């Protein structure tokens, strides 16, 4: 099987996630973009696993899902705390510290 | 009827090397136990229970590490996922020692009976709920299990022999740190902002690293470092995948080290986090990240050395130059120490680029010299941040450099200690920092990177300038009534950290020989 299609698709998703992180100003959306990047990685893992004919990549995808879930727990806690203190989740408003 | 069980192949039970893994398991187990204690121990005893438990766990893990180091040959354990070899033992010991210092700083509450952490981190800053929690003297004793989990992740990271374990470990040690960063008692908005920035940028870096890992998996067909090494040696797979994977993986590792151009989070996070957490992050995260970087690039990607040496030498130059020049302009102690830590990341990378392999009888190797450098840097950093917690004004820390003016007259002992740490940072004999710089630079020199050593020496001179700025402020400038910081005496916890780090900084500067040869003997990675 040729993994090229999956690799290209995962690269596109990864770049969309990266662009979303860099361009969007809402912390939640930025965080969702990171989740998209993690999922694009899962696609790459699974595609490569099929190509190489072993299970390590598919196994990796499960681990990534668990880690992503743990990251959501911590991340949303931080974002909610910031939102409640400032009434804003925009990353542009978090500017008390510069250089 | 066919018996299904007979047709299924045997699944062999996983055999774990319990003794080799025991330092990791102790930390993880005690961390879980400490969480349970939160639920069952009455509030008034929790502080005592948690501090005692954390100290015991770390001391036990350290004892086990040293015992294993002395008695067990290097081996790859846990079905090939974890390598317990010389460098692992060295870095585990370093991390555990730093962890002990961090527990002591976390446990400090000698300043009007309160710790550096928020009484209730979930409350809105300035709200009645926050004042209520403050009045009742609530505190988060969960910081101790969080510290243990983070330490566990760092140790796993330093010993990971598999890229997936590497990724999981980086998240295990980062997630508790994101939370700890946002829990400062004073200037809580700043602290929460630091946590947000650290979290977003940290998870971006680990996502990029994970994609790199996926590409390396695609390149070699395995996640073990040995698989990648074998694929590079065979050289039949696509070079594009290897280079892209190498580049993206290094992004995540360089982010954790705090190297340019992935350094932007460092000053903000160091400034906003509670000072004990900053001290822990500055030393332990860097130690773990450097250990992981060394293993991945020396063991897994050693065959592609020519590709990454160029990359790292460029990053090292940028890191050293930016770290030490921007530090010149800083007026806040914690920010200054943050830029100083960036500069030190550059000096460490100089040693990484040298890539001199270790072994029996090899005097100068990259791994041993970097381990020694991290030790000297860690001692000075822990000590300096301990002093930062003691210079205070109107109930909180006074971090502005102005507050430190005339410290030599107000409290000569503290000023002498701070001067010692600054001299060690600057690499001036007879402090440990001098020996650290000497060994790292000679590793790069032996590795054939003389020009990089030259750049490192020049930037060291620039860096020495801003360390001396602090010394001059303490001894030769007069305090201004409006900004002066008073020195408040902490409890025994901080004093112990301060004295141990100061004595060790001096002793390692005067007689480094035995420790250097101990590290040199343990400098070889197992493959």
UniProtKB/TrEMBL annotation, chain A:
GO MF annotation, one: NADH dehydrogenase (quinone) (non-electrogenic) activity
Predominant localisation class: membrane
Coiled coil: none
UniProt catalytic activity: a quinone + NADH + 5 H(+)(in) = a quinol + NAD(+) + 4 H(+)(out)
Topology term for the membrane: Multi-pass membrane protein
Subcellular location: Cell membrane; Membrane
Subunit architecture: NDH-1 is composed of 14 different subunits. Subunits NuoA, H, J, K, L, M, N constitute the membrane sector of the complex.
PANTHER family in the record: NADH DEHYDROGENASE SUBUNIT 4L-RELATED, NADH-UBIQUINONE OXIDOREDUCTASE SUBUNIT ND4L
Function statement: NDH-1 shuttles electrons from NADH, via FMN and iron-sulfur (Fe-S) centers, to quinones in the respiratory chain. The immediate electron acceptor for the enzyme in this species is believed to be a menaquinone. Couples the redox reaction to proton translocation (for every two electrons transferred, four hydrogen ions are translocated across the cytoplasmic membrane), and thus conserves the redox energy in a proton gradient.
Protein name: NADH-quinone oxidoreductase subunit K
Gene source species: Tessaracoccus bendigoensis DSM 12906
Organism lineage: Bacteria, Bacillati, Actinomycetota, Actinomycetes, Propionibacteriales
Automatic annotation (TrEMBL), chain B:
Sequence intervals crossing the membrane: 20-40, 47-70, 90-107, 141-158, 164-184, 196-220, 240-265, 277-298, 310-329, 336-358, 370-391, 412-429, 449-472, 492-511
UniProt-listed Enzyme Commission number(s): 7.1.1.-
Domain of life per record: Bacteria
Annotated compartments: Cell membrane; Endomembrane system; Membrane
Catalysed reaction equations from the record: a quinone + NADH + 5 H(+)(in) = a quinol + NAD(+) + 4 H(+)(out)
Domain NADH:quinone oxidoreductase/Mrp antiporter transmembrane, chain residue ranges per copy: 160-460
GO annotation terms (biological process): ATP synthesis coupled electron transport
Keywords, in A-Z order: Cell membrane, Membrane, NAD, Quinone, Translocase, Transmembrane, Transmembrane helix, Transport
Enzyme class: translocase
GO molecular function, one term: quinone binding
Pfam families the record matches: Proton_antipo_M
InterPro entries linked: NADH-Q_OxRdtase_suN/2, ND/Mrp_TM
Bilayer topology annotation: Multi-pass membrane protein
Any single GO CC term annotated in Swiss-Prot or TrEMBL for this entry: endomembrane system
Function according to Swiss-Prot or TrEMBL: NDH-1 shuttles electrons from NADH, via FMN and iron-sulfur (Fe-S) centers, to quinones in the respiratory chain. The immediate electron acceptor for the enzyme in this species is believed to be a menaquinone. Couples the redox reaction to proton translocation (for every two electrons transferred, four hydrogen ions are translocated across the cytoplasmic membrane), and thus conserves the redox energy in a proton gradient.
Family the UniProt entry places it in: Belongs to the complex I subunit 2 family.
HAMAP family: NDH1_NuoN_1 (MF_00445)
Protein name per the record: NADH-quinone oxidoreductase subunit N
């Amino acid at each position: 099987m040729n993994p090229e299609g999956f690799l290209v698709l995962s690269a596109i998703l990864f770049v969309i996630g990266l662009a979303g992180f860099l361009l969007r100003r809402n912390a939640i959306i930025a965080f969702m973009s990171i989740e998209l990047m993690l999922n694009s990685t899962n696609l790459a893992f699974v595609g490569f696993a099929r190509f190489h004919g072993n299970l390590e990549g598919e196994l990796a995808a499960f681990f990534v899902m668990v880690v992503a879930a743990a990251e959501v727990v911590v991340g949303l806690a931080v974002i909610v705390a910031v939102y409640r203190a400032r009434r804003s989740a925009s990353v542009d408003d978090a500017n008390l510290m510069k250089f | 009827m066919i018996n299904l069980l007979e047709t299924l192949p045997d699944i062999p039970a996983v055999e774990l090397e319990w003794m080799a893994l025991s330092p990791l398991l102790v930390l993880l187990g005690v961390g879980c136990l400490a969480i349970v204690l939160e639920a069952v121990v009455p509030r008034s005893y929790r502080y005592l229970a948690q501090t005692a438990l954390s100290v015991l766990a770390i001391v036990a893990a350290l004892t086990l590490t040293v015992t294993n180091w002395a008695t067990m040959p290097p081996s790859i354990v846990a079905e090939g996922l974890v390598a317990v070899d010389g460098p692992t033992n060295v870095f585990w010991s370093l991390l555990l020692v730093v962890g002990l210092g961090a527990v002591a700083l976390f446990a400090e509450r000698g300043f009007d009976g309160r710790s550096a952490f928020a009484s209730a981190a979930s409350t809105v800053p300035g709200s009645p709920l926050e004042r209520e929690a403050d009045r009742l003297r609530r505190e988060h004793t969960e910081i101790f299990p969080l510290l243990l989990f983070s330490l566990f992740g760092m140790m796993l990271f330093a010993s990971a022999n598999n890229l997936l374990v590497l990724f999981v470990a980086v998240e295990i040690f980062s997630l508790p740190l994101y939370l700890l960063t946002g829990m400062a008692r004073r200037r809580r908005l700043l602290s929460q902002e630091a946590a947000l920035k650290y979290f977003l940028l940290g998870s971006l870096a680990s996502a990029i690293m994970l994609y790199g890992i996926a590409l390396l998996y695609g390149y070699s067909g395995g996640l073990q470092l040995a698989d990648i090494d074998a694929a590079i040696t065979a050289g039949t797979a696509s070079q594009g995948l290897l280079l892209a994977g190498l580049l993206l993986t290094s992004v995540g590792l360089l982010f954790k080290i705090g190297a340019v151009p992935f350094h932007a989070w460092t000053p903000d996070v160091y400034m906003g986090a509670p000072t004990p957490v900053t001290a822990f992050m500055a030393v332990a995260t860097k130690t773990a990240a450097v250990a992981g970087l060394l293993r991945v690039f020396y063991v897994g990607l050693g065959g592609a050395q020519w590709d990454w040496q160029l990359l790292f030498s460029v990053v090292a130059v940028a890191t050293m130059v930016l770290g030490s020049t921007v530090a010149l302009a800083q007026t806040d102690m914690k920010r200054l120490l943050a830029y100083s830590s960036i500069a030190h990341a550059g000096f460490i990378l100089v040693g990484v680029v040298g890539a001199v392999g270790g072994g029996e009888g090899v005097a100068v190797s990259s791994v041993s010299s970097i381990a020694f450098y991290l030790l000297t840097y860690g001692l000075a950093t822990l000590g300096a941040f301990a002093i930062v917690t003691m210079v205070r004004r109107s109930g909180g820390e006074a971090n502005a450099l102005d507050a430190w003016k005339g410290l030599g007259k107000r409290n000569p002992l503290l000023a002498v200690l701070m001067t010692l740490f600054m001299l060690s940072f600057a690499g001036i004999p007879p402090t440990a920092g001098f020996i650290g710089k000497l060994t790292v630079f000679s590793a790069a020199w032996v590795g054939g990177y003389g020009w990089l050593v030259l750049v490192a020496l020049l930037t060291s001179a620039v860096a020495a300038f801003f360390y001396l700025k602090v010394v001059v402020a303490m001894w030769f400038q007069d305090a201004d009534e409006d900004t002066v910081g008073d020195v408040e005496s902490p409890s025994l916890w901080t004093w112990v950290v301060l004295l141990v780090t100061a004595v060790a900084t001096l002793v390692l500067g005067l007689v480094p020989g035995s420790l250097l040869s101990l590290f040199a003997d343990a400098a070889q990675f197992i493959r």
